[in-house]
Amino acid sequence: MEEPVLVHPPSEKLRTQMAMAAGNTPVLLKEVSIYQEKRFLTGIGEFDRAVGGGLVPSSVTLIGGDPGIGKSTIVLQVACALARAGLKVLYVSGEESVKQTKIRADRLGQLMNENLFIVNDIDVQSIIGHIHELSPAVVIIDSIQVVFLAEITAAPGSVSQVRESAAVFTQLAKQKGIVLFMIGHVTKEGAIAGPRVLEHMVDTVLYFEGERYSSYRVLRTNKNRFGSTNEIGVFEMAANGLQEVSNPSQIFLSERAPNTCGSAVVPILEGTRPLLVEIQGLVARSAFGMVRQKAQGFDQNRLALLAAVLEKRLGLNLVDKDIFLNVVGGVKIMDPAADLGVALSIASALLDKPIPANTVILGEVGLSAEVRSVAQPLIRINEAEKLGFGRCLLPSNNLKNKMEKPKHIQLIAVATVKEAWDKL
Ligand code: TYD
Ligand code: MG
To answer: Best mutation site among 76, 78, 106, 237 for ligand 1, i.e. most ligand atoms within 8 A of its Cβ?
Structure first.
C-alpha cells in the first residue's frame, strides 16, 4: 500500500551512494591505506558485542523490534553512556515528550551531564536544523516512523515517508561523520512501513527480541558492514532498565530439573558465542488418530525429519505418537549442531529414560542417522566445561581432526544416533 508521491528522482539508495562517493576520484586499490577504524565503546558490553566491538563514526544503525520491547530504553542507556564518555549526543524523541524521557532516564539511574541533549520533534527539516546547530557526534531518531518530510504528501509511517526521511538522515550522517541510530517498530500490518524497508540502506541492523512475558531480551545483529552478523547481546529488563546478562547459559539452564526424561542440553553457537540451552521433548500417544508434531524454538520440518530418522533407522515406534519439542528460555535454534540433542531428547521421552544431567550433546544428524561434524566444537565444549558439565557426546569426525583436549570434560565420540543413545 504505497501512497502516491510527487517526484522521486533519484532513489534514496542512489542518493546515499552519491553522497558517500561525492568528491572521490579513482585510486589504486593497493594504495588504499587500511587503518583500524576508531570505534566508540559504550561500556555496555553486551551492546558493544552486538555492534561488532564498538560504534564506527559515520555509521548508521537501525534498531528494530516490537513495540514495548525496550528499544527506547536501550538507546537511552547507550546515549547516556556515550555522553559520559565525552561525546555530544542528540536524542530526538518523536514519540514521547522530553519530560517522559527524563522520567525514564531517572528510572534508569543514569547521571545526566553536559553532553546529552534531547528534543521532541518530528519534522525532518527542523531536526536537521538542530543537528547543524548542535553538531552532535551521535544522533538518535526515536522513531523513524513518526518523523515526516513536509514535501512528501504521504502520512508519517508510510513507506515513502520512512524511506525518504531515513535517506535524508543517512546522507547527513555520512557527510558529517555522525554515529546515527534510527529506531523502527516491527509492524505486523503491512499498511505501515517496518524496519525491513530500510535494511538495505543502513550499515547495521539490530533486532531487539524477546518474549513479552519473559524478562530476557536478545539484541541480534542481522546485518553489519563493520563486524560479524549473528552476534547477540543478552539483557534482562529490570525495574531500573536493561541489565547485561554476561553468562546467558547459566540463566537458560537455571530452572532445569535434573534427570527428567526428554531433557537434553546442547551447546549451540550464536555468532561467535556459545550458548548452552535446554531442549525438552515430550512424546504422548495421540488421540483421534491425528498425529501432531509441534516445536517451539526449533524448525518444525527439521523435527519431522529427525522423528522419521528415529523411526526408520532406530526402529523407535513413533507412528501413533504426538511429539512436542520446546527450547527453554524463548531461544530460537538455527544451529544444526542441536540435531542430535533433539533426537536423543525425543528418544529419552519415548523410552522414559533420562539423559544423565552432567552430559551435553553435540552433532548434526543426517538422513541415514549418521552424526555429522559441527563447526567450532572447542568453544562449545569449553562453555560446557565452564558450567560444570562432565561429559560431552560429539561427532567422531570432530575428534579425528586434531583438537586440543579439554581437561575436565570427558569427550565421547559417536558416529551414529544409535551409538549415541547406547553410549548414554
Ligand atoms: P520501551 O523502551 O519504551 O519500549 P519501546 O521503545 O521498544 O517501545 O520499554 C517498554 C517497556 O519496558 C515498558 O513496558 C516498561 C519496561 N521498562 C522496565 O521494565 N524497566 C525500565 O527501567 C524501563 C525504562 C522500562
Ligand atoms: Mg519507544
So the answer is: 237
